[in-house]
Write a structure and sequence with these properties.
By secondary structure, the chain is of the alpha/beta class. Helices cover 37% and strands 20% of the residues. It has a 7-stranded mixed beta sheet with strand order 10-11-12-9-13-14-15.
């Protein structure tokens, strides 16, 4: 494996007859830290979130590295990751690493925790390899760099986009003088942001208007820094913004004009966009280079001695050839990795792999780190300078409640989410006090925040895995609405978090004397692959083991909770919403079909059957009513929540196209054809020796078609539920809202 990064040229280096541009500051000093060559580098991971899997996959393939421990305050998450990757120790705190002889910790915690955690690790004598952003200002970065130097410890930063293949090739050509002296760089970073679609506004990147720059900006800015060095001056203009929640502003499009040490730059940063464009164009005195990181290609144009008409023809012809060559390479790489003939080569993974490998290779060789803390500080100088005109107001957190439970209180787990916040609102409207279990007390939905301020909502913190703690929190409550039901990509994760986790919470509620425990399941646990009428029943799909892991998890959870009801009398009530839509859910809902791209929806069939749609407001009203219903009719029962709206997938996508003005398409595809394609992909992977393959389930595919009607008699008769079912009004409330949002987001209006 190649541990080298792209070469850094000094000011006097030359290539051919052209002066080569300086591409990096002076090399950092060597770190005299590497373990004895015969000894493996002992590594710990700090944080068991999304990015940890990528680090572990790369580290598992480095011959001189051994992962010793995974640390996360949520011990079950650390343990799950440790089990998955065969790591011996799962710990809750950094202090527990002291006796394990750790050489280096990969710091993967949320950005606002990097500075104190990095300092704690260095004080323990442990080197650090930190995810971006290293810290949240250049001053903190330089302070930590000084501490690491004082202790003789390595402190590297994962600026993985500097190692992306297209950028590496671009840097090599710039260094070779192929386009002369770099004069100007144009950066375009325009990307979707799934957290916006999912309305995950409590995420760190949304807590302050400037946070998004530190969360996402180091990717393109580390590349820019590599090309033109330190920032000298810049002007930032905010092109547009959105109000996520009252008082919570998100700056979604930025334009920056800047001057660096060795050239000027124009930077376009845009987040939450419908079309992805992620490029860097370098304009030199004798040519230009453009790297497209989305498609992993590089094209160029250079001066020629030919007349203009022929020069123009050659420029387009040669660029087209370069693009075709790269497109072929990308396709071959995908096919090779899919067949199991080669390692993954997609741009993101390749950048991660080379960045992590370069750090550990340099560490063991006693060489300068590819990206050290001082270089990261210079990238943060770019962030700090660009963000200078942006408000630094971090917002205010609310205190946790110390008040006792009030009579008739309803406890909502997941009360800040898409459905949960509406359940809280409806309960408050009915005059009931509410308690919400929260991980954070800032950036809360408006209804939860305002009710917490005036005392109608109690905010408490706890762990769903701590049964005794949850029983104490539930004590005195009349009902629990359980929306925070867990999940995972593997059956082991789903069984632990969704099934066992929900049973533990239900047991705690029963122990505390709660009168009603409402578990929010899904119609995904039912077999919906045939026409007919599905009535309320506790029976899930009888062949659920042939279904996808999510459906299996929901069915297994229902089965375990109903057994708890039979064995102990726990007051279990199960609710199964259908295709829930409304403000706050992604426009590209999987209930309509498979979104191969964000504007191309491939149907689960021909898209002609009426879908079991339901407005999110109606789901919330039913859950609130179930929490308040004191009769025994729902105990030990499961009730469906689907409206009878005369709309199919074709019609919904067509209405989305009209409302948004976007180039949206619905592609009907027979289930037989889809199954044949799935089997074809399975055979390719099987031929490549891929492990753990499961033959594609036709039953699961058919069930995604959502063919039957739902009676929903329990909700209608017991709770008096009357969902919105008139087609035009339903479209106004759930589909045409996306067109309204686009109009409102136009700048200058």
């Amino acid at each position: 494996m190649n541990f080298d990064c792209a070469p850094a040229l000094g000011a006097s280096d030359t290539v051919s007859s052209n002066p080569a541009p300086v591409l990096a500051p002076s090399p950092p000093k060597k770190v005299c830290f590497p373990p004895k060559r015969a000894e493996l580098t002992r590594v710990a991971l700090i944080g068991a979130g999304f990015i940890a899997d990528f680090h572990l996959e790369v580290l598992s393939k480095l011959p001189d590295v051994e992962v010793i421990a995974i640390v996360d305050p949520a011990l079950s998450r650390a343990q799950g990751l440790a089990d998955k990757w065969g790591v011996n120790s799962a710990l809750q705190s950094i202090a527990e690493l002291g006796s394990l002889g750790i050489h280096v910790a990969h710091l993967l915690a949320p950005p606002h925790l990097h500075e104190p955690l990095c300092r704690e690790l260095l004080e323990l004598g442990i080197g650090v390899f930190a995810e971006k952003p290293f810290v949240l200002c250049a001053e903190e970065a330089r302070s930590l760099a000084a501490l690491a130097a004082q202790k003789g410890l390595p402190l590297g930063i994962n600026h993985n986009h500097v190692f992306q293949p297209a950028f590496t090739r671009l840097v090599e050509q710039v260094a070779a003088g192929d386009i002369g002296v770099v004069e100007h760089v144009q950066v375009t970073w325009s990307v979707p942001l799934m957290q916006l679609d999912a309305e995950q506004y409590s995420h760190w990147m949304f807590r302050s208007p400037r946070n998004i720059l530190y969360e996402q900006g180091p990717h393109p800015l580390s590349q820019l820094h590599r090309l033109i060095g330190q920032v000298q001056e810049c002007h930032t203009q905010i092109l547009s913004s959105r109000e996520l929640l009252p008082g919570q502003t998100f700056l979604d499009r930025w334009a920056v004009s800047a001057r660096g040490e060795r050239g000027t730059a124009q930077i376009y940063l845009a987040w939450g966009q419908g079309f992805t464009r992620n490029t860097i164009t370098v304009i030199g005195s004798d040519g230009m280079l453009e790297a497209d990181f989305t498609h992993d290609n590089l094209s160029s144009e250079r001066k020629s001695p030919w007349l203009e008409f022929w020069n123009s023809f050659l420029a387009g012809w040669k660029r087209g050839g370069m693009l075709r060559k790269d497109a072929t390479r990308v396709l071959k790489n995908w096919m090779s990795s899919t067949l199991g003939l080669a390692e993954r080569q997609d741009a993101f993974y390749a950048g991660m792999r080379e960045s992590i490998a370069a750090f550990h290779g340099a560490l063991r060789a006693g060489q300068p780190l590819p990206v050290d803390a001082n270089q990261a500080a210079e990238v943060l100088d770019w962030c700090d300078t660009i963000a200078r005109e942006v408000s630094k107001d971090e917002g205010q957190s609310l205190p946790l409640s110390d008040k006792p439970v009030r009579p008739g209180e309803v406890f909502v787990l997941g009360g800040t989410g898409f459905i949960g916040k509406r359940v809280v609102r409806d309960l408050l409207a009915a005059g009931k006090p509410v308690t919400c279990l929260v991980r954070r007390t800032h950036s809360l939905p408006e209804i939860v925040e305002s009710a917490a301020r005036d005392g109608r909502v109690r905010l408490v913190r706890g762990s769903l895995e701590d049964a005794s703690q949850m029983a104490e929190l539930f004590r005195g409550c009349s009902a629990v609405v359980h929306l925070a039901t867990g999940g995972g990509d593997t059956w082991e994760e789903v069984e632990r978090t969704m099934v066992q986790g929900s049973v533990k919470v239900a047991e705690a509620a029963h122990q505390a004397g709660v009168e009603r425990f409402i578990y929010v399941s899904s119609i995904a646990c039912l077999y919906t692959g045939e026409l007919g009428m599905l009535r309320d029943s506790i029976q899930a799909d009888p062949l659920i083991d042939e279904r996808a892991v999510y459906s299996r998890g929901k069915a297994a959870t229902e089965k375990a909770l109903l057994k708890l009801h039979r064995d102990t009398g726990a007051p279990i009530i199960i609710s199964r919403p259908g295709v829930v839509v409304g403000e706050g859910t992604p426009m590209q809902h999987s209930g309509y079909g498979l979104w191969a791209r964000d504007n191309h929806c491939v149907g689960w069939g021909l898209g002609e059957n009426q879908l079991p749609l339901v407005w999110v407001e109606d789901v919330a009203s039913a859950l609130a009513a179930a929490a308040l219903h004191e009769g025994p009719e729902l105990i030990g029962q499961a009730f469906n929540l689907c409206a009878r709206v005369p709309l199919n997938a074709r019609q919904v996508v067509a209405e989305l196209r009209k409302a948004t003005g976007r180039d949206l398409h619905f592609h009907p595809r027979s289930l037989a054809k889809s199954q044949a394609m799935e089997i074809g992909k399975w055979m390719v992977k099987l031929a490549g020796g891929r492990q753990g393959l499961v033959f594609p389930s036709y039953r699961d595919l058919k069930s995604r078609g959502l063919f039957p009607e739902f009676s929903c008699n329990l909700a209608r008769e017991v709770l008096g539920w009357k969902p919105l079912e008139e087609a035009e009004e339903f479209l106004d409330r759930t589909v045409r809202i996306y067109g309204h949002a686009q109009v409102e987001e136009q700048p200058g209006e």
